[in-house]
């Protein structure tokens, strides 16, 4: 673990071996390497600065315990702080409400909203059974009756895409009514879910290629009507710096309750997780690790911290 950063810090600290406490100069030298590691992991620049500023006072003056080198000591302090900033422990979905409990999926087009909707629907509908179930606990331990509805009326294929995923995962989707508008679909979905005794209703909203006012107003109206218990912001881990602006815009307008980070299976080092958490203050709850509907995992702050530090 931390081979990359360890090596870098090892070089920096070669001269310092055996000192009792970390001096200001030692720490600053080490934090320059940490800064580079965070930037390489695509953590947004303002978040990198914030991180360095908050970890610095913790490291200065820290005793270097006998069994480790000063470099290892800095890594431990940085790693602990990073895990804490990422939320510390796994954050559960909150579905404690009178059914149907609504989960609203928001984010940019192509971020993985529809895929993530189907993944969450599949996992909730399987309860403790099904593929990859052993990884999940909390809200996912109870088998639930789930309905999905696509509110994306702009992209012609979007509603059909969700219907196909529904068939693959065995999760029912709201029948498509041509030319129906998003708010009307929301109303019909809520009525259907109530009437047919669904526990959870997942609403997949339309995304755009960039944040725009019309989209934001539409999502806000849907949210006001559906009163979601969870509003999950879906973001692509590969988008790096952009992810921050997206997160901020959504979080400013909606009560985002959690983040789903997708494409954590790719080359991305996961820095977006730290950026998203720092900018919104909301926990990353789930990660997408592939295109298949069982490739969803809970978010473990300690695992991502190791990946970010490299
Ligand atoms: P939407 O426009 O936000 O609804 O995005 P989609 O759900 O249609 O996803 C866009 C593309 O990303 C599709 O090709 C998905 O298969 C792919 N995708 C979604 N999540 C993941 C993931 O976690 N890993 C990988 N590798 N691909 C993903």
Automatic annotation (TrEMBL):
Catalyzed reactions per annotation: GTP + H2O = GDP + phosphate + H(+)
Biological processes annotated in GO: SRP-dependent cotranslational protein targeting to membrane
Molecular function GO labels: 7S RNA binding; GTP binding; GTPase activity
Membrane topology: Peripheral membrane protein
Tagged with keyword GTP-binding: yes
Keyword flag Cytoplasm: yes
Alphabetic keyword roster: Cytoplasm, GTP-binding, Hydrolase, Nucleotide-binding, Ribonucleoprotein, RNA-binding, Signal recognition particle
Enzyme Commission numbers on file: 3.6.5.4
Primary localization class, coarse: membrane
Residues bound to GTP: 107-114, 204-208, 262-265
Domain SRP54-type proteins GTP-binding residues, every copy: 283-296
Superkingdom of origin organism: Bacteria
Protein function: Involved in targeting and insertion of nascent membrane proteins into the cytoplasmic membrane. Binds to the hydrophobic signal sequence of the ribosome-nascent chain (RNC) as it emerges from the ribosomes. The SRP-RNC complex is then targeted to the cytoplasmic membrane where it interacts with the SRP receptor FtsY. Interaction with FtsY leads to the transfer of the RNC complex to the Sec translocase for insertion into the membrane, the hydrolysis of GTP by both Ffh and FtsY, and the dissociation of the SRP-FtsY complex into the individual components.
Family, similarity comment: Belongs to the GTP-binding SRP family. SRP54 subfamily.
UniProt free text on domains: Composed of three domains: the N-terminal N domain, which is responsible for interactions with the ribosome, the central G domain, which binds GTP, and the C-terminal M domain, which binds the RNA and the signal sequence of the RNC.
Subunit structure: Part of the signal recognition particle protein translocation system, which is composed of SRP and FtsY. SRP is a ribonucleoprotein composed of Ffh and a 4.5S RNA molecule.
Protein name: Signal recognition particle protein
Organism: Enhydrobacter aerosaccus
Higher taxonomy: Bacteria, Pseudomonadati, Pseudomonadota, Alphaproteobacteria, Hyphomicrobiales
């Amino acid at each position: 673990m931390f081979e990359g950063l360890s090596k870098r810090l090892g070089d920096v600290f070669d001269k310092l071996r055996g000192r009792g406490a970390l001096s200001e100069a030692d720490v600053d030298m080490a934090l320059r390497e940490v800064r580079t590691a965070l930037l390489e992991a695509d953590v947004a620049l303002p978040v990198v600065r914030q991180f360095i500023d908050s970890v610095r006072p913790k490291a200065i003056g820290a005793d270097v315990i006998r069994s480790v080198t000063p470099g290892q000591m800095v890594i431990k302090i940085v790693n602990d702080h990073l895990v804490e900033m990422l939320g510390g422990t796994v954050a559960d979905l909150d579905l404690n409400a009178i059914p149907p409990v609504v989960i609203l999926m928001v984010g940019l087009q192509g971020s993985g909203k529809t895929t993530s909707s189907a993944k969450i629907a599949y996992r909730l509908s399987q309860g403790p059974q099904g593929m990859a179930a052993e990884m999940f606990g909390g809200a996912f331990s109870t088998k639930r009756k789930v309905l999905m509805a696509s509110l994306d009326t702009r992209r012609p294929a979007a509603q059909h895409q969700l219907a196909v995923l529904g068939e693959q995962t065995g999760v029912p989707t709201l029948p498509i009514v041509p030319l129906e508008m998003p708010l009307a679909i929301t109303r019909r979905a809520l009525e259907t879910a109530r009437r047919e005794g669904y526990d959870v209703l997942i609403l997949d909203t339309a995304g755009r290629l960039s944040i725009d006012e019309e989209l934001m107003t539409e999502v806000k109206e849907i949210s006001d009507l559906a009163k979601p218990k969870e509003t999950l912001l879906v973001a692509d881990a590969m988008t790096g710096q952009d992810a921050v602006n997206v997160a901020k815009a959504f979080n400013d307008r909606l009560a985002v309750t959690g983040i789903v980070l997708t494409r954590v299976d790719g080359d991305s080092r996961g820095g977006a997780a730290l950026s998203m958490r720092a900018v919104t203050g909301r926990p990353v709850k789930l990660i997408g690790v592939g295109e298949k509907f069982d490739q969803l995992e809970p978010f473990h702050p300690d695992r991502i911290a190791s990946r970010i530090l490299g």
